[in-house]
Amino acid sequence: MIGSLPPGPSCSVLDVPGVGLGHATVVRDEPAPPEGRGVARTGVTVLLVAADAYRRPFAAGGAVLNGAGECTGFISAQEWRTLETPVYLTSTMQLGRVYDAACELALEQDPGVADDVVVPVVAECDDSYLNDCRRMQVTAEDVRTAYTRARESRGTTAPGTGSVGAGTGMSCLGFKGGIGTASRKVGDHTVAVLLLTNFGQRDRLTVAGVPVGRHFPPAPGPEKPAGSCIGVVVTDASVDGAGCERLARRIGLGLARTGSTAHHGSGEIFLAASTTFRTDRDGNRVGADPIGSRALDPLFEAVVDCAEEAVLDSMLSSPTTVGRDGNTSEGLDPEKVLELLT
Question: Catalytic residue positions?
Answer without folding.
Answer: 228, 266, 268
